[in-house]
Amino acid sequence: MNPPYEATHRVGEDSQAYFRLGTGPAIVIVHGVGGHKEDWREVAEALATNHTVYAIDMLGFGGSSRGAKDLRVLTQALAIKALLDCNDLKRATIVGNSVGGWVSATFAATYPEMTEKLVLIDPAGFEAMFQGEPPVNLFPDDVEQMKKLLSYIIHSDFAHTQTYAEQAFASFILSGEKSIVPVLWPGLFLSDRLETLLPKVASPTLIVWGKEDRLFPAELCPYLTALTPGATSIIIENASHFPQVDQPAVLIRELQNFL
Q1: What is the CATH number of the domain that holds 249?
Q2: Cβ neighbours for 118, distance < 8 A, ≥ 6 positions apart
Q3: What is the pLDDT of residue 148?
Q4: Is residue 54 packed enough to be buried (19+ CB in 10 Å), middle (13-18) or exposed (0-12)?
Q5: What percent of the chain is modeled with pLDDT above 90?
Q6: Does residue 111 fall inside a structural domain?
Q7: Disulfide engineering: 207 pairs with which of 36, 156, 183, 233, CB 3.0-4.6 Å?
Q8: Which stretches within 87-202 are classed as H helix?
Q9: How do 92-97 and 205-210 pair as beta strands?
């Protein structure tokens, strides 16, 4: 397969980076906090055999504008609409993981006419998430905090070594993404929760959960599925918060079956 086409598009005063692969009906993939568009390369390549896949960096992350002053979930959803508009796309399937799932649900609830299908993978944004202190620091301050975070979000053994934690923390510091925290957290607290959004979703929806997710337990899957009209769900064994990392082949198969 040819290398992905790398580009940016404007979102008001900001810019959003994305890559594009394949031809066919459009799919937009939205990463979560701590993730980037590159994390989805394997999934994107598999889906690109029958689709045009756009994998984005959310505003504030990766190659997108770091200085965005508004990082509400709705603003991230508006950036997806801007991506579709600049590529002359009327509709797309939206696939989102973690906070990217929250963004995807917000897009689907806000722009039902532009949403072909919706896939939510261990999505953030449910009401209970805002009750009490989080179990881990999603923007770690040192290697030990990174090691603890990895134990919550990745099930595979490769991610649970000191060396991997050191490399992950070094990459995180190099990214400069900790600088967005003062804008990101207030934006999340001001955003509509999944309990408000999911009943408004009109598109066929698949909710995917990693059975070993320690950040957002898999018991949330049937709860959120019941809130979403006509949604179906699957639990992926031996996967945590990032099934695309732990079990990419299984996730690809389930996505292809749904699409």
Answers
A1: 3.40.50.1820
A2: 93, 94, 95, 104, 105, 108, 201, 203, 204, 205, 206
A3: 97
A4: buried
A5: 91
A6: yes
A7: 233
A8: 99-110, 143-153, 162-175, 181-189, 194-197
A9: unpaired
For residue 168, being part of any structural domain is answered with no
The total number of structural domains in the chain stands at: 1
Give the model's pLDDT for residue 200. 98
Q: Which residue has the tokens 């998430």?
A: 129
Q: How far apart are CA 234 and CA 226, in angstroms?
A: 13
What CA–CA distance (Å, rounded) separates 153 from 70?
26
- Neighbour count for residue 252 (Cβ, 10 Å): 18
Give the chain's largest Cα–Cα span: 47
| Per-residue confidence band for 3, with pLDDT thresholds at 50, 70 and 90 | confident
CA distance 22 to 53: 6
Give CA–CA dist 72/247, Å, rounded: 30
pLDDT attached to residue 171: 95
Residue 52 is part of which domain span?
5-132+181-258
Q: Which two tokens stand for residue 33?
A: 């906090």
Query: Looking at residue 190, what DSSP letter applies?
Result: T
